[in-house]
């Protein structure tokens, strides 16, 4: 019985997926040569590929740059007051809205910067906040 179980487990976890895995690995290594990845420990490689999943939201606030706003403007103070009261999941959704990902890139939050800009609309009450994910700009009407 032990031999049967060992052979079955080997088939399910190794043999049955060998061809699809080899195809995946070949494609992955074409874009990301293995010699470049060997310098990373597994946990470091995971961070490089997936980004950080733990956040210091106050550090994020500290790293923001402002366009047509000052840090002490009422709109900005109200924004951060509301933001810090949000549950963690909503904060991650904001991050995805702003940057296209709910994670911080591997280089870390201390280097993650974004802009909050006043779009200077004639009637700001009729304009929703929007974002430029490529440039990490939040257009926040007054």
TrEMBL record:
Segments traversing the membrane: none
Active-site residues, as the UniProt record annotates them: 134
Superkingdom to which the source organism belongs: Eukaryota
Classification via Gene3D superfamilies: Hect, E3 ligase catalytic domain
E.C. number(s) listed in UniProt: 2.3.2.26
Keywords annotated in UniProt: Ligase, Transferase, Ubl conjugation pathway
Designated name of the protein: HECT-type E3 ubiquitin transferase
Source species: Pelecanoides urinatrix
């Amino acid at each position: 019985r032990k031999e049967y179980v060992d052979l079955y487990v080997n088939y399910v976890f190794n043999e049955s997926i060998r061809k699809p895995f080899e195809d995946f690995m070949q494609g992955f290594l074409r874009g990301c040569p293995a010699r470049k990845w060997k310098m990373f420990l597994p946990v470091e490689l995971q961070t490089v590929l997936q980004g950080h999943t733990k956040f210091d939201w106050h550090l994020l606030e500290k790293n923001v740059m402002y366009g047509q706003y000052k840090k002490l403007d009422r709109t900005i103070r109200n924004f951060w007051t509301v933001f810090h009261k949000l549950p963690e999941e909503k904060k991650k959704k904001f991050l995805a809205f702003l940057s296209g990902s709910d994670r911080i890139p591997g280089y870390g939050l201390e280097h993650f910067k974004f802009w909050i800009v006043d779009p200077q609309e004639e009637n700001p009450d009729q304009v929703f906040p929007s974002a430029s994910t490529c440039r990490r700009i939040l257009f926040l009407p007054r």
